[in-house]
């Protein structure tokens, strides 16, 4: 459910939603 929204600077080491 977190992959739907853009991942902020909370988890930089967790590229879950790294589309860019």
Radius of gyration, whole Å? 7 Å
N- to C-terminal distance: 19 Å
Count of DSSP E strands? Answer: 0
Q: Shape from CA axes?
A: flat
User: Which sheet architecture does the biggest sheet show?
Assistant: none
Low-confidence stretches: none
Q: How many helices?
A: 0
Helix share bin:
under 10%
Could you characterize what this model shows?
This protein has 20 residues and is mostly loops. Helices cover 0% and strands 0% of the residues. It has no helix or strand. The protein is flat. The termini are far apart. Residues 1-20 are annotated as: Disordered.
List the keywords.
about 20 residues; little secondary structure; about 0% helix
Summarize the structure in short.
With 20 residues, the chain is largely without helices or strands.
Write the layout of secondary structure elements.
Layout: no helix or strand
Region (Disordered): 1-20
